[in-house]
Amino acid sequence: MKRKPTRPTSSAKLLSTTITSLSHDGRGIATLSDGKTIFISGALPGETVTFKITNQHARYNEGEAVEILIASEDRTTPECAHVGVCGGCSMQHVTMPAQIQLKQKSLLEQLKHFGKVEPEAILAPLTGESWGYRRKARLGVNFLKQKGKIIVGFREKSNNDLVQIDACPVLHPSVGRRLPEIRKLIVSLSQYKHIPQVEIAIGDDITALVFRHLTPLPDGDIAKLTEFALSNQMHIYLQPNPPATTYKLWPQDKTDLLSYSLPLYQLEMLFHPLDFTQVNSEINPLMINQALQLLDLQSSDNILDLFCGLGNFTLPIARLAKHVVGIEGSQEMVDRAQHNAQHNHINNTEFHVANLAELPINRPVWMKKRYDKILLDPPRTGAKEIIAAFPKFSAKRIVYVSCNPATLARDAGELVHNQGYKLKQVGVINMFPHTSHVETIAMFEK
Fold first, then answer.
1. Interatomic CA distance for residues 155 and 40, integer angstroms
2. What pTM was estimated for this model as a whole?
């Protein structure tokens, strides 16, 4: 049976140590006098720190830096007042060049450790603005009955409690600087106790807030939400309990979709605020450009795009290739991708619904075809199951976009050691500055 970690009291003894390396999630690593490894949040390699132990496990401990006695040259002053408490950013104390270097190092280490592979070449990192970049987020809302107040913010880094956030420098300014106003709005509603979250989605020129509510909202609350939308030039959506559907409250026009553009490919991509889209609108087109360059698309190519979503890669590929087949697990997202193809007058694509986490007993038509090249952008769990079918596709080149270096490394091992591909190039995409999340891109070739 798994043992729960023990938690020290608030009077835990302060210790000191020197940090030797950094973990993949941005914590400093040191060795205690008894030989036990400890992971210390807020500490960097080469630093001497005092720290307190926060959790004790059988094989390792966890701690938190209290004072930096000797600082690293890679240390900088965080811009956010909530750093160290909010779980959203764990690397604001690290300079941006060092953040990217650490992420690249973590990627290469995991490829070597989990996949037993090394790339022939390393791509230059894709970088952009590191503040105000986040265009998708979820604000938690919690009514504290004992204190008689409402908390609106993000989860703490060590538990599920909410941190009251007054300003968030990584959120797009249209929301990141208006969090107190959003909290004031929620407090003013008669049903404030029954609003657990607010989804944020931002297109090229529209900011949308989706209010989840567990009980029906009376006319007075609807009027206040509408007035907020008008005065702040935002779109407001309501998300009641299922099976009721999410709907647009304001403005009352004919569409409930937002959009972002990809000018290089003359595309306008439509999406609903609750759809999955890339959070960083500056990095997304750079990532698409790099993926298509690595695919080396030819006008005669037939391409397979796995985990295609609303067509973020599929439609740019369609501008350069003969034909593209997009596969996604959600019918709703497949419908969105088809709509986007029609909206952009693209007719050399087709989309299918399939659960890519398991191989079907009877192969569908798209699995019986051969493809010149494959692009895949799976979730954090990776693409182990569908990769097992790759030999039947006979693709000469694969571009793999990943949000989890560990599963990329696992899948890279399968492609290299069992399917005869070579890992030609790999690189870091700085999609999530100031966090420990690592977005990567890899190209395999036979």
1. 19
2. 0.93
